[in-house]
Design brief:
- By secondary structure, the protein is an alpha+beta fold.
- It has two domains: 121 residues, no CATH class; 81 residues, no CATH class.
- The protein contains six helices and eleven strands.
- Strands 10-9-8-7-11 form a five-stranded antiparallel sheet, with no helix packed on it. The protein has a four-stranded mixed sheet with strand order 3-4-5-6.
- Strand 1 and strand 2 form a beta hairpin.
- The longest helix has 33 residues.
Length: 259
């Protein structure tokens, strides 16, 4: 199967990691996890399974050639091509992809939808923190800081679990987060849940010199990286589930860029 290079537009084999024509990275390799939606119907089911708001709220129209402004969507046209589009605020349309590769087309909208979910949940979290802060006195805040510091000291003394980040062990790259280990599969070019967690915990816990740790990966959520996919573990799936208390802010969405 062929996929389209985002940089030069040429069609290349999907098993390539870089475009042989321009050298650009190929995002299509990240859609190969087994449970990643590959058809419009699978993407529609994924949307419903994650309890997302109605399409009129999220502005993601799956399987529809929606004509009104401010919309993302995917559909199959009369010629059989799959079209991924974005309708801007002024009503003009930017076509992200048009071609015969349904899996590639679906992945383009799928990745954009996941990115928007992450942005929306981040905004909700920020609003919640601000609301709580407005009702806090300086005295309570100082007491809370002291409590957090004390708890941090206790955790540092008694908790021997590895710290969040990347590790290199036994010729494999691993990532540790939320009491779970993930390993990077070079052949599949993606991450999977590690099946040797006990061994890793025992070895890394005794690594007083941090010889195995290679990066903290601070400043970027592991779930937001292109390696961490919904098909590999329930971590992203649970993060994508929409909470009834969350509010989808359409006004904060970017409808004026090409994608």
């Amino acid at each position: 199967m062929k996929i389209k290079c985002d940089y030069c537009g040429s069609m290349v084999d999907e098993n390539q990691k870089q475009c042989p024509n321009c050298g650009g990275p190929l995002s299509g390799v990240n859609r190969m996890a087994d449970e990643t939606p590959k058809t419009i119907e699978e993407l529609r089911q994924w949307y419903q399974a994650h309890n997302l708001p109605p399409e009129e709220v999220t502005r993601f129209f799956i399987g529809k050639d929606y004509k009104d402004p401010r919309a993302f969507g995917i559909y199959q046209d009369d010629s059989g091509d799959f079209v991924v589009y974005k309708n801007k605020t002024d009503g003009s349309r930017a076509v992200r992809y048009q071609g015969a590769d349904e899996a590639y087309a679906v992945n383009e909208l799928y990745q954009r939808l996941k990115s928007e979910i992450a942005d929306q949940k981040s905004k909700n979290a920020g609003q919640g923190s601000k609301a709580k802060g407005n009702h806090s006195s300086s005295g309570c805040l100082s007491g809370l800081i002291l409590l957090i510091v004390a708890m941090g000291i206790l955790i540092a003394v008694f908790d021997k679990s590895p710290s969040k980040g990347y590790y290199r062990y036994g010729d494999h790259d691993y990532y540790y987060q939320n009491s779970s280990w993930y390993y990077y599969d070079d052949y599949a070019d993606t991450w999977y849940k590690a099946d040797n967690e006990s061994e890793l915990n025992e070895t890394i816990n005794s690594d007083s010199e941090s010889a195995y740790k290679i990066d903290t990966h601070e400043g970027q959520s592991f779930e937001d990286s292109s390696w961490y996919d919904a098909g590999n573990d329930s971590g992203w799936d649970s993060d994508s589930n929409w909470d009834s208390n969350d509010s989808w802010d359409t006004g904060g969405m970017d409808f004026d860029s090409d994608w």
